[in-house]
Amino acid sequence: MVLPWYNRIAVRLSVSIMAVIVVTALSVATLILRDEKHILQKDLRIRALQLGEILPRQIIEPLLYDEDFALYSLLQSYLESKESFLLYGEIYNELGELIIARERESITREPITSFKLARKQPVFLRDFSETDPKQPLDLLIPISSKQLGVAGYLRLGISVQSLFKTLHTSRKKVWVVTSLIAVIGILAALWMARELISPVLLLNRAAHRVGAGDFGTAIPENGVGEIGELASTFNTMSHQLKELVAAIRSAQENLVRTEKLYALGEFSTGLAHEIKNPLTSIKMLIQRAEEQEESLEGEDLEVIVEELDRIDYTVSRFLRTARQSEMAFTDTDINSLVEDVLAITGPKIEKSGIRISKKLDKTLAPLRVDGNSIKQILMNGILNALQAMNPGGELTISTSLVDGNLQCTITDTGCGISKENLKHIFDPFFTTKEDGTGMGLAVAWNIAQQHGGRLDIVSNHSGTSLLLILPYDYPAHC
């Protein structure tokens, strides 16, 4: 499975680090600009208030003596100063009547509705505006002396253009520095991510190779800290896994060899057991003829021939069992096979006093199987069921389609099979019958495997079911 690029740890780590750096740089830059703006605003207010302390001292004497020209000249000199941040100035008498007004440029300003707030200290009629940040500050200052009290008022318009020029210059510098820091930080983050992720990617590729069977794969142990330790642990694990797999393969080969020898021994034992009885009969006839000094003839010869035929049949049957004969797959109606087997076993079923119940699915399409081999499985299942039941029992045989597989079930109403015997039911030569060979179910199981299916047995105290399960579209070349 190949991960999409956006799910790779290198991409996610790099993006995360870059996001943290960018967000941090932007946050720091925003805080710096905000603090600088507040400082510049505070500084401009202080300068305005300082001017508001100097001008009233210069104005109070000409105001008291009604020297309008002196007042005019004083305001004009401040307005025309190159370094002045004064945009306009207005002088009012103690009654709030306008005496003199001068301005550097035409600026719309609201009339003063009340002078009460400015009788004791300067008041900003308009502070820094949020809607129009370039609007000038409007400062109203009382003109007073300790002896005479308030003699008039001075209104000053303070320009904020210098403040915004300074802010604009600072903003450029801050964003340039922030961009440089972000770029350098991102490059450093990518380099660091690469250094951290490279050993992990090597480890991932090595793990894939190990998963594909390339045991003993090693990677360079040049990581830092826990990553280097992980690489070392992986190499140790890979080496140990290679040794373990080699040991398992060796043990498996020995086990297969042992199983073959065991199977050969079991096969030989079963074959010897089957041959022993007819050989004993032949031996007894020969010994009797020798003791009585008579020649073998008539019925004795017929018995010997029959026993020899029995030996030949037994040997042939065991050889067929030992070999996996080639299957002849053809399109076959499974229900027809069931009917054929029931027709063959019909007389024996009637003689046993067993009732037959058929539940065949007529909608099943033909299945590609080896008909003779499937008949052998069905025949073995039916005969085993007959032997397990007493007269009056019921044999049920059904065909159906279950989860895309064909299922043929043979169910009896016998006493069932014990759990201990059920574990060995498909073992060659395992039998609980005195005259059985223990090869019937073993051969049936092998046939089902050759068809790509399986043979299951379900049993309890009320009966046993043999389930033949075959893939419904199994190819003919299997």
TrEMBL record:
PROSITE patterns: HAMP (PS50885), HIS_KIN (PS50109). InterPro entries: HAMP_dom, HATPase_dom, His_kinase_dom, HisK_dim/P_dom. Residues 241-302 form a coiled coil. One of its GO terms (cellular component) is membrane. Pfam families: HAMP (PF00672), HATPase_c (PF02518), HisKA (PF00512). It catalyses: ATP + protein L-histidine = ADP + protein N-phospho-L-histidine. Residues 270-474 form the Histidine kinase domain. It is an enzyme of class 2 (transferase). It comes from the Bacteria. GO terms for molecular function: ATP binding; phosphorelay sensor kinase activity. Keywords: ATP-binding, Coiled coil, Kinase, Membrane, Nucleotide-binding, Transferase, Transmembrane, Transmembrane helix, Two-component regulatory system. Its EC number is 2.7.13.3. The chain crosses the membrane at residues 12-33, 174-193. Residues 194-246 form the HAMP domain. This is histidine kinase.
